[in-house]
Design a protein that fits this description.
The complex is a heterodimer of chains A (426) and B (184). Chain A has 426 residues and is an alpha/beta fold. Chain A has 3 domains: 244 residues, Rossmann fold; 69 residues, Orthogonal Bundle (Arc Repressor Mutant, subunit A); 85 residues, Roll (Structural Genomics Hypothetical 15.5 Kd Protein In mrcA-pckA Intergenic Region, Chain A). Chain A is built from 15 helices and 13 strands. In chain A, the strands form 2 sheets. In chain A, strands 3-2-1-4-5-6-7-8 form an 8-stranded mixed beta sheet, sandwiched between helices. In chain A, strands 9-13-12-10-11 form a 5-stranded mixed beta sheet. In chain A, a hairpin with a 4-residue loop joins strand 10 and strand 11. The relative contact order of chain A is 0.11. The model of chain A has no long low-confidence stretch (mean pLDDT 87). Chain B is of the alpha+beta class and 184 residues long. Chain B has a single domain, classed as Ubiquitin Conjugating Enzyme. Helix content of chain B is 34%, strand content 13%. Chain B contains 5 helices and 6 strands, in the order H-H-E-E-E-E-H-H-H-E-E. In chain B, a hairpin with a 2-residue loop joins strand 5 and strand 6. In chain B, helix 4 crosses helix 5. The chains are: A alpha/beta (426), B alpha+beta (184). Chain B: It is an enzyme of class 2 (transferase). Chain B: It comes from Penicillium alfredii. Chain B: Keywords: ATP-binding, Nucleotide-binding, Transferase, Ubl conjugation pathway. Chain B: Pfam families: UQ_con. Chain B: Pathway: Protein modification; protein neddylation.
């Protein structure tokens, strides 16, 4: 579609219905709410940050612009891939290889007169608190748990009891296939991403020994080709999941191994799916979730109607089912709670095994942690002198290092916030 | 926008009441947690080493700087770091444990570095301090002196100042003050 030939609708009439909702009280609007120019102004002056300009992000940007927001920022580190075009409708074939944030911002800005969209191409981690402080509301359309945890802990860390402006509502959407969720997080006030982290169980990792010795499933053969065969045969060639030749090589190696073990089902597409960790995406699910999250942003920004409290799940795979409930804030949430979270551990486990298990447990998912108790440094990765001194602890059993019920504090460079766990011996 | 702020205030009142009622267990302190994180994120070049007299106490340690360029090249300088429980709201206390001739370090070992005093902010970390310390040896600063005589020397006669640095590092005296030998 060539956007220049599109007939632009009457700009005055465009907001008629929106203004109706913002200038008259409705049956559900708050008693204290003042409809009228002030509310319209609140909408137009609210600076909104959209994180992610992919499947959800395209929908969100379009919806926000068409809901009357005038000052929108968007941040995304990715470039456009041909496989995005089926649903990321702000992108065209000629945009392949260009940054998503810039193309999406330019498209929506051109299409909806009067809206200002500022793109940033890069990681959310590039930005500091000063950057996030300028926004009224933050809305996410992300595909990674790690990024969600990062922005969640950053916004919670920003809350300053002296400064009302420091509390930034976070509206988060997510989809996978026909399923999706939308939620509203008021940092430190309501349940946060970390409170419900165990809902996002990590993909079950296949033990390396299964992959290396006797595979049972086609995926095991692909993992073998990707992780082991590549290392052996093409060590000096860094694997690039976007390089078709690399994928083909892995596919052929996996196919050969599958034949050896009489396993069927290794396909090129499955190979791509396994090595790129592809999550199936359906355009309509994105549209449903983006619609839900953006209308929450509109309601929070203008107070015109009650907002979502605080979690909506959408299941479209068998008919349609949606359910809204209030996820509870966990008092022992390692990010928004001030109490340590309980964690059951085996006292006979060594510290080294425990650290390894932190990477796999649904409730922590930490890869390179340092940790201590109030009186003891258990393991500290840097500086070298402390690492050397604490390394022998890795061989000791938890029961030798700690008392039952003791609190440990864990830091991992990948996250801006530290974690507290209370270890209960089982 | 929403009445979020009044919600936050109510929550805090409730929390305060609660914590007054129940006793707290031995928790890892916020300062310890922050130092643990700062240490993990340090970048020590080849010119810096840290040592911990008691590795379980990460709030007290020694930083050794061995400048590989500048007027103080060849010296080994030790600083004691002491972090209090109010860190990162308070800056770490840093002292040079040797008696050295330096415009920004006095004879008692006190260090004049802006981010250790007036310009300290909780967002700064130990790495920022360590980088600042290293900078003091590369670019001694005459405009903000703690050792006024050394600063005067640096300002008025750079060559004489250099000679004084060398002789003080070798354990000699400058203007009647005997300095500690800090050469490798």
């Amino acid at each position: 579609m060539d956007t220049s030939t599109v007939v632009v609708p009457d700009q005055q009439g465009r907001w008629k219905h929106l203004y109706k909702a913002l200038t008259k009280p409705g049956p559900f609007s708050d008693e204290d709410w003042v409809p009228g120019a002030e509310t319209v102004n609140a909408l137009e002056s609210s600076k909104i940050l959209v994180i992610g300009a992919g499947g959800l992000g395209c929908e969100i940007l379009k919806n926000l612009a068409l809901s009357g927001f005038k000052d929108i920022h968007v941040i995304d580190m990715d470039t456009i891939d041909i496989s995005n075009l089926n649903r990321q409708f702000l992108f065209r074939q000629t945009d392949i290889g260009k940054p998503k944030a810039e193309v999406a911002a330019a498209f929506v800005q051109k299409r909806v007169k009067g809206v200002n969209i500022t793109p940033y191409v890069g990681k959310i981690q590039d930005k500091d608190e000063d950057y996030y402080m300028q926004f009224k509301i933050i809305i996410c359309g992300l595909d990674s748990i790690e990024a969600r945890r990062w922005i969640n802990s950053t916004l919670i860390g920003m809350v300053d009891p002296e400064d009302p402006e420091s509390l930034k509502p976070l509206v988060d959407g997510g989809t996978e296939g026909f399923k999706g969720q939308a939620r509203v997080i008021l940092p430190t006030l309501s349940s946060c991403i970390e409170c419900q982290l165990d809902m996002h169980a990590p993909r079950p990792a296949v033990p390396l020994c299964t992959i290396a010795t006797i595979p049972r499933q086609p995926q095991h053969c692909i993992e073998w080709a990707h992780q082991i065969a590549w290392q052996e045969k093409r060590k000096d060639d860094p694997f690039d999941s976007d390089d078709m030749e690399h994928i083909s090589w892995v596919y052929n190696a996996a196919l050969e191994r599958a034949q050896q073990f009489h396993i069927h089902g290794v396909t090129f597409q499955m190979t791509q799916g396994v090595v790129k960790n592809i999550i199936p995406a359906i355009a309509s699910t994105n549209a449903v979730i983006a619609a839900s999250t953006t209308s929450e942003v509109l309601k929070i920004a203008t107070s015109c109607n009650p907002y979502l409290e605080n979690y909506m799940m959408y299941a479209g795979e068998e008919g349609v089912y949606t359910y809204t409930f209030e996820a509870e804030k966990k008092p022992d949430c390692p990010v928004c709670g001030n109490l340590a979270r309980k964690m059951d551990v085996d006292p006979n486990m060594t510290l080294g095994e425990f650290i390894e298990s932190l990477g796999e447990r649904a409730e922590s998912q930490l890869k390179k942690p340092s940790m201590r108790t109030e009186e003891r440094t258990l393991y500290q990765r840097f500086p070298p002198q402390l690492e050397e001194h604490t390394r022998p602890n890795l061989q000791l059993k938890l029961g030798e290092l700690l008392e039952n019920g003791q609190e440990i504090a864990v830091s991992d460079s990948a996250y801006t916030i530290d974690f507290r766990f209370r270890l209960i011996f089982k | 926008m929403l009445k979020i702020w009044s919600m936050k205030q109510q929550q805090q009142q409730a929390e305060n009441a609660e914590s007054a009622a129940g006793k707290k267990k031995k928790k890892v302190t916020a300062a310890q947690l922050r130092v643990q994180r700062d240490l993990q994120e340090l970048t020590l070049g080849s010119t810096m080493k840290m040592s911990f007299p008691n590795p379980d106490d990460i709030l007290n340690f020694t930083l050794t700087i061995e400048p590989d360029e500048g007027m103080y090249k060849g010296g080994i300088f030790n600083f004691s770091f002491s972090v209090n429980q109010n860190f990162p709201h308070d800056p770490p206390k840093v002292k040079c444990t040797q008696k050295i001739y330096h415009p920004n370090i006095d004879l008692e070992g006190n260090v004049c570095l802006n981010i250790l005093r007036e310009d300290w902010k909780p967002v700064l970390n130990l790495n920022a301090v360590i980088v600042g310390m290293q900078f003091l040896f590369l670019e001694p600063n005459a405009s903000d002196p703690l050792n006024k005589e050394a600063a005067d020397d640096l300002r008025t006669n750079r060559d004489a100042f250099k000679r004084n640095v060398r002789s003080s590092m070798a354990g000699g005296s400058v203007r009647g003050n005997a300095f500690e030998r800090v050469l490798k």
